Amino acid sequence: MSDWPLTRTFRSSSGEVRWDSLGDPGRDPVVLLHGTPFSSYVWRAVARALARRHHVFVWDMPGYGASEMFSGQDVSLAAQGRVFTELLAHWELAEPRVVAHDFGGAVSLRAHLLHGARYRSLTLVDPVALAPWGSPFFELVGRHSEVFGQLPPALHRALVREYVGSASSPGLHPAVLDRLVVPWLGDPGQAAFYRQISQADQRHTDEVQDRYGEITVPTLVCWGEDDTWIPLDKGHELVARIPGARLETVPGAGHLVQEDAPAHLTAALVDFLG
């Protein structure tokens, strides 16, 4: 879309990935990973700010945002971890700084611990990383994704708007909410929305959570103090598992810290990445 164009395409093992980069290619690379049910659009303000000092890479995971969506597509955490590893090789980034939100946190952790992806540093923002995770709504939709996929378009749109909006503590600007919802509407968006929920499986974090003690790169964990999707207690638990990790809490922010407190998050990232 014209307000956040991703102009380049990579053919991954799970479909076409739309991506782009901002800033001087000669600068220190930073890769941003989005969560679910979002896209790289949530990083737009932070990415543009970081591009003053870094070469910033943004991408929409397969099945999300502007990237390819299709029936039978594997959009699981396992698949996304492999795709991220493929992208790093395609970009020829041997050791970038990685910043990952929500579901993207699990993707970055799996790529690092299971696929050998190397990072110069790791920032995790309200990540999906520790069991248990998944709200009652998430579990309900996961069990009945085919039924939800047949909802009339107007009801589906209302459901997605309410769900996405609940990730923010102060509330999203209507135009931002519209932009985050649009990829999930119509064909193939509606089916893709329920597909990604149905494939979300806690076993993909269970496989790695006992290995967080192996992480040796500098690690910052940022957490919205008002996150109702994943409580702040999980941030304290995660920091305790990663050697030398530091926790930065963000007052007044919910799960979507990038939207609720972009200035605070950017300042924390500039300080850490610098």
From TrEMBL:
PANTHER family: HYDROLASE ALPHA/BETA FOLD FAMILY (PTHR43194), PIMELOYL-[ACYL-CARRIER PROTEIN] METHYL ESTER ESTERASE (PTHR43194:SF5). GO terms for molecular function: hydrolase activity. The keyword tRNA processing does not apply. This is Alpha/beta hydrolase. InterPro entries: AB_hydrolase_1, AB_hydrolase_fold, Carboxylesterase_BioH, Epox_hydrolase-like. The keyword Cell inner membrane does not apply. It comes from Streptomyces pseudovenezuelae. Residues 29-262 form the AB hydrolase-1 domain. Keywords: Hydrolase. Pfam families: Abhydrolase_1.
